[in-house]
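Work Package 3 (structural annotation) set out to generate three-dimensional models for the target panel prioritized at the project kickoff. During this period the team completed the workflow that converts sequence records into C-alpha coordinates, so that structures can be stored uniformly alongside our sequence database. As a representative example, we reproduce one entry of 126 residues exactly as it appears in the project archive.
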Amino acid sequence: MGERKLTDAEQVVMRCVWNYGKDEIPFLTLIEELREKYDKDYKRTTVRTFLFDLEEKEYVKVERRGKFSYVVPVVQKEDYRRNQAEEMLDIWFDGSPKSFISALSGRLSEEEGEKLKGLLDELDAQ
Protein backbone atom coordinates (compact mmCIF):
# COMPACT_ATOMS: atom_id res chain seq x y z
CA MET A 1 0.00 0.00 0.00
CA GLY A 2 1.07 3.55 -0.54
CA GLU A 3 3.04 4.43 2.57
CA ARG A 4 2.72 8.18 2.28
CA LYS A 5 -0.06 9.91 4.18
CA LEU A 6 -3.09 11.26 2.37
CA THR A 7 -4.18 14.85 2.80
CA ASP A 8 -7.79 15.51 3.78
CA ALA A 9 -8.61 16.45 0.18
CA GLU A 10 -6.95 13.29 -1.15
CA GLN A 11 -8.99 11.21 1.29
CA VAL A 12 -12.19 12.74 -0.09
CA VAL A 13 -11.08 11.96 -3.65
CA MET A 14 -10.28 8.38 -2.65
CA ARG A 15 -13.69 8.00 -0.98
CA CYS A 16 -15.31 8.97 -4.31
CA VAL A 17 -13.12 6.49 -6.18
CA TRP A 18 -13.83 3.67 -3.73
CA ASN A 19 -17.55 4.38 -3.33
CA TYR A 20 -18.28 4.61 -7.05
CA GLY A 21 -19.04 0.90 -7.07
CA LYS A 22 -17.11 -0.08 -10.16
CA ASP A 23 -13.50 -0.96 -10.90
CA GLU A 24 -12.83 2.53 -12.23
CA ILE A 25 -14.42 5.96 -12.23
CA PRO A 26 -14.41 8.29 -15.24
CA PHE A 27 -12.54 11.52 -14.49
CA LEU A 28 -15.53 13.73 -15.27
CA THR A 29 -17.77 11.58 -13.08
CA LEU A 30 -15.25 11.96 -10.26
CA ILE A 31 -15.54 15.74 -10.50
CA GLU A 32 -19.35 15.47 -10.38
CA GLU A 33 -19.25 13.09 -7.40
CA LEU A 34 -16.96 15.45 -5.49
CA ARG A 35 -19.39 18.30 -6.12
CA GLU A 36 -22.62 16.40 -5.43
CA LYS A 37 -21.65 14.17 -2.52
CA TYR A 38 -18.99 16.21 -0.75
CA ASP A 39 -19.83 19.78 -1.80
CA LYS A 40 -16.33 20.18 -3.24
CA ASP A 41 -16.44 22.37 -6.33
CA TYR A 42 -12.87 21.75 -7.44
CA LYS A 43 -11.65 22.86 -10.85
CA ARG A 44 -10.53 20.16 -13.27
CA THR A 45 -6.90 21.20 -12.86
CA THR A 46 -7.16 20.87 -9.09
CA VAL A 47 -8.59 17.35 -9.35
CA ARG A 48 -5.84 16.45 -11.83
CA THR A 49 -3.27 17.67 -9.29
CA PHE A 50 -4.84 15.50 -6.58
CA LEU A 51 -4.77 12.52 -8.93
CA PHE A 52 -1.15 13.15 -9.88
CA ASP A 53 -0.23 13.18 -6.18
CA LEU A 54 -2.31 10.04 -5.55
CA GLU A 55 -0.51 8.30 -8.42
CA GLU A 56 2.84 9.34 -6.93
CA LYS A 57 1.74 7.84 -3.61
CA GLU A 58 0.61 4.68 -5.46
CA TYR A 59 -3.05 4.89 -4.41
CA VAL A 60 -4.51 5.20 -7.92
CA LYS A 61 -3.64 4.72 -11.55
CA VAL A 62 -5.05 7.12 -14.15
CA GLU A 63 -5.64 5.50 -17.53
CA ARG A 64 -6.19 7.55 -20.64
CA ARG A 65 -8.41 6.02 -23.35
CA GLY A 66 -9.05 8.25 -26.33
CA LYS A 67 -10.43 11.55 -25.08
CA PHE A 68 -11.36 10.20 -21.65
CA SER A 69 -9.46 9.42 -18.46
CA TYR A 70 -10.38 6.79 -15.89
CA VAL A 71 -9.23 6.51 -12.29
CA VAL A 72 -8.49 3.00 -11.03
CA PRO A 73 -7.80 2.40 -7.34
CA VAL A 74 -4.55 0.58 -6.64
CA VAL A 75 -5.10 0.50 -2.88
CA GLN A 76 -8.41 -1.04 -1.87
CA LYS A 77 -10.72 0.66 0.63
CA GLU A 78 -10.59 -2.16 3.19
CA ASP A 79 -6.78 -2.25 3.11
CA TYR A 80 -6.65 1.51 3.69
CA ARG A 81 -9.22 1.36 6.50
CA ARG A 82 -7.39 -1.50 8.21
CA ASN A 83 -4.08 0.37 7.97
CA GLN A 84 -5.64 3.55 9.37
CA ALA A 85 -7.30 1.67 12.24
CA GLU A 86 -4.03 -0.09 13.16
CA GLU A 87 -2.17 3.21 13.06
CA MET A 88 -4.79 4.86 15.28
CA LEU A 89 -4.62 1.96 17.73
CA ASP A 90 -0.84 2.20 17.91
CA ILE A 91 -0.65 5.98 18.24
CA TRP A 92 -3.61 6.81 20.47
CA PHE A 93 -4.44 3.58 22.30
CA ASP A 94 -1.05 1.88 22.75
CA GLY A 95 -2.19 -0.97 20.51
CA SER A 96 -5.13 -1.85 22.77
CA PRO A 97 -8.44 -2.59 21.01
CA LYS A 98 -10.14 -2.51 24.42
CA SER A 99 -9.03 1.07 25.02
CA PHE A 100 -10.24 2.04 21.57
CA ILE A 101 -13.65 0.42 22.12
CA SER A 102 -13.88 2.03 25.54
CA ALA A 103 -13.36 5.44 23.92
CA LEU A 104 -16.25 4.69 21.55
CA SER A 105 -18.54 3.17 24.14
CA GLY A 106 -20.70 6.28 24.42
CA ARG A 107 -21.60 6.01 20.73
CA LEU A 108 -22.59 2.33 20.82
CA SER A 109 -26.06 0.96 21.32
CA GLU A 110 -26.50 -1.60 24.08
CA GLU A 111 -26.75 -4.39 21.49
CA GLU A 112 -23.59 -3.25 19.70
CA GLY A 113 -21.80 -3.04 23.03
CA GLU A 114 -22.75 -6.61 23.90
CA LYS A 115 -21.56 -7.89 20.52
CA LEU A 116 -18.25 -6.08 20.91
CA LYS A 117 -17.84 -7.37 24.46
CA GLY A 118 -18.25 -10.89 23.11
CA LEU A 119 -15.66 -10.29 20.42
CA LEU A 120 -13.21 -8.81 22.93
CA ASP A 121 -13.74 -11.78 25.26
CA GLU A 122 -12.92 -14.08 22.33
CA LEU A 123 -9.73 -12.08 21.68
CA ASP A 124 -8.73 -12.41 25.33
CA ALA A 125 -9.25 -16.18 25.17
CA GLN A 126 -6.78 -16.51 22.27
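Helices lie at 8-19, 27-38, 44-56, 77-92, 97-104, 110-125.
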